[in-house]
Amino acid sequence: MSAARVAICGAGFGGLAAARAFGERLSRLPPVGEVLLIDKENYHLFQPLLYQVATAGLSGPDIAIPIRSILRRYPQITVRMDRIIGFDLEKQNVMLESSSVGYDYLVLSLGAVTSYFGRANWDQYAAGLKTLSDAHQIRGQLLLAFEQAERTEDPVRREELLTVVVIGGGPTGVELAGAIADLTRHVLRRDFRHIDPTKARILLIEAGPRLLAQFPEKLGRIAEYRLKALGVEVRLSSPVQDLGNRSVILAAETVRSANILWSAGIIPHPLTATLPAPRDRSGRLLVLPDLSLPGYPNAFAIGDMVSIPGVPAIAPAAMQMGRHVASLITGELSAGVIPPEKRPVFRYRDKGMMATIGRSTAVVWIGKAAFNGLAAWLAWLAIHLVFLIGFRNKVIVLFQWTWSYLTYGRGARIILRSEAARSPTRHKASTSSSADG
Amino acid sequence: MSAARVAICGAGFGGLAAARAFGERLSRLPPVGEVLLIDKENYHLFQPLLYQVATAGLSGPDIAIPIRSILRRYPQITVRMDRIIGFDLEKQNVMLESSSVGYDYLVLSLGAVTSYFGRANWDQYAAGLKTLSDAHQIRGQLLLAFEQAERTEDPVRREELLTVVVIGGGPTGVELAGAIADLTRHVLRRDFRHIDPTKARILLIEAGPRLLAQFPEKLGRIAEYRLKALGVEVRLSSPVQDLGNRSVILAAETVRSANILWSAGIIPHPLTATLPAPRDRSGRLLVLPDLSLPGYPNAFAIGDMVSIPGVPAIAPAAMQMGRHVASLITGELSAGVIPPEKRPVFRYRDKGMMATIGRSTAVVWIGKAAFNGLAAWLAWLAIHLVFLIGFRNKVIVLFQWTWSYLTYGRGARIILRSEAARSPTRHKASTSSSADG
Question: In angstroms, rounded to a whole number, what is the distance separating the alpha carbons of residues A73 and B102?
Answer without folding.
Answer: 62
